[in-house]
Design goal:
alpha/beta; Rossmann fold; 2 domains; three-stranded parallel β-sheet; 3 strands; elongated
């Protein structure tokens, strides 16, 4: 029996590149990736895809809060703190939620029917792996 289904989980770039001081994320997210890969192997023939979406630094309320806290802690402006985040990104800017949403919409579509068991970063090139 062939069914159509899309399962996506939002992990993080910590899934493949540990980030200092995020021990729980660095441990749990690779496990989620392994689960999704295993499920993709089990259900691929039924037309159900399983993929991980790995956002990098994205302009969210959480990021704004972290930037504001960094600015306060370091005694710098919000703009200076924000630029320290974007400095590590080859594209030189913070990602937008709509850019992440575009990937999710594509993976949910029929056009992505042959993409399963993978993890896709939306990070402006920040991850340094090959």
């Amino acid at each position: 029996m062939h069914v159509y289904g899309r399962v996506m989980v939002v992990t993080s770039v910590t899934q493949i590149e540990p980030i200092p001081h995020l021990i729980l994320s660095n441990v749990m997210r690779p496990g989620i990736s392994g689960l999704m890969k295993s499920l993709s192997n089990e259900y691929a023939a039924k037309g159900v895809t399983f993929n991980c979406l790995m956002p990098g630094i994205t302009e969210t309320d959480r990021l704004k809060s972290l930037v504001a806290q960094m600015a306060e802690d370091k005694g710098i402006s919000y703009e200076e703190a924000l630029s320290s985040y974007s400095a590590a990104i080859p594209m030189g800017r913070i990602g937008q939620p709509k850019e992440f949403a575009a990937l999710a919409a594509f993976l949910a579509s029929e056009r992505a029917s042959y993409i399963t068991g993978t993890s896709i970063p939306v990070d402006g090139g920040r991850i340094k792996r090959i």
